[in-house]
Amino acid sequence: MKHFKRIAGFLMIVIVFYFIGRVVYEQWDKISGYPWSLNSLWLGISIGILLAAYLLSAYEWTLILRMIGVRIELSKGISIFLLSMFGRYIPGGIWSPVGRVFLCRREGIADSRSGMSVLLEQTYPVVSAAFVFVVSLLFWHDTGPVARAFPLLVFVPLFFIFLHPKPFLRVMNPVLAWFGKGPINISLSFGNMLILAGYYSFSWIVAGVAFYCFIRAFYPLEFYYIPILSGISAISFIIGYLTFFTPAGLGVREGSITILLSLFIPTHIALGVALLSRLWIIGVELIILIIFLINAETRRMVRSALGW
Q1: How far apart are CA 143 and CA 110, in angstroms?
Q2: By CB neighbour count within 10 A (0-12 exposed, 13-18 middle, 19+ buried), where does 195 fall?
């Protein structure tokens, strides 16, 4: 089974980069001919807003810990989340949550609590990203009103039903059993689950605003595209996130962005933006890592995690 997953992962990477390379080849004349002048102001704004989105995601996970009864300082929770985030760059899709449980253990938090928080944190971004994407369809002006509203009418009731603790556990416990994990019991109320879903949906919108500002650094785009870009950014990130064969969704996310973004802007611009956005994200995460290495407390956590 392990060899099959490795082979499947390798084939997935080859296929993804083949199609991206093919589009680059076909669109190269237009890509190289476009005046890729950089607006440093919009780029700086996009970096600041994306940093805020990361901090918001870290706060949301810390809030989950507190809701399930873990007493943890806000700064500590944010540091654990951001440090474990770098595990996404290791293929397999498990190293970020495993690293978070490990860091929590070193801070005296029981594995059962940290494991539950990770499970919830893995679920809420996916569900809320799908919600933001469906809502964004209302702003897709090239489709009819029925086509825009129908997914919303279908998905929103499912969204609220799934967030109720009983349906949530009925779905998640069989999935955990399939992976050889025991059933879980969630002490969160329906109200708390709605609060978390609201926070995560808001963080995707913030990330969408950052993505809009990033595109504006290279290509003029009207403000009314922000809801659309929030949906595209959210669903593309989740597609890359769920494709655990590739580190940090490398290639898969860029392909998704190119396909969806090309519905609104020229394909060669969409492709260039998608590829440059990977460097944008890596750059912001490098800023976070530098801050970690400068701060004494987070530097201690890094040394502890590495066993130094």
Answers
A1: 50
A2: middle
Contact residues for 85 (Cβ-Cβ < 8 A; gap 6+)? 54, 96, 285, 288
Neighbours of 150 (CB within 10 A): 13
Element (H, E) at 122: helix 111-136
As a residue count, the chain comes to 308
pLDDT at position 37 is 76
Structure tokens given for 209: 């605003």
Helix (H, G, I), strand (E, B) or coil at 221: coil
Angle made by CA atoms 252, 253, 255, in degrees to the nearest 5: 65
Distance CA 45, CA 51 (A): 10
**Per-residue pLDDT reduced to its tens digit, 97-138:** 777 888 888 778 887 778 778 877 877 888 888 889 888 888
- Distance between CA 200 and CA 205 in Å, rounded? 9
